[in-house]
Amino acid sequence: MVGGASPRRSGRYHRSKTIQLLAGFAPRTGQGLGFPNSRKTGEDVLGFLQNTLLPRYCTHGKIYLVWDNFSAHRRDLNLWRPMPDNVEFVWTPTNASWLNLIEPWFLVLEKTALHNPDLKTTQAIAEHLLQGIDYLNEHPRPYPWRKAL
What we know:
Blueprint: E1 20-26, E2 31-37, H1 42-57, E3 63-67, H2 71-77, E4 87-91, H3 102-113, H4 122-138
Parallel strand pairs: 3-4
Antiparallel strand pairs: 1-2
């Protein structure tokens, strides 16, 4: 390092290892949960919904799951029969996934957990993501929907 400058990613950043993050987010509280996984099949998504997300939020009344219109998401849901009565799916318009409030949370998570570290393995990526989620949950920032006037 010259002059005390911190190391940075090069302008041509290349990822050699990737991981899928199955995640849920409660905009009202600003808290989320995640499950890093090596893949994201319909069975993986369904398992995350049934075994992680629903048990955590099942007593909170109606659960709205906001999804973009990625065709695989619709296929994933066909595996979930019968669907619980307290779950409703909301689909963002095509090419408008930015309307889903989990997207800005993902951005904050990325900056919190993955900014500048040199992660060599998918296990290290998963650990950093989980630590980032824990940190964000300890310092929650609600994401309210704002009605335009």
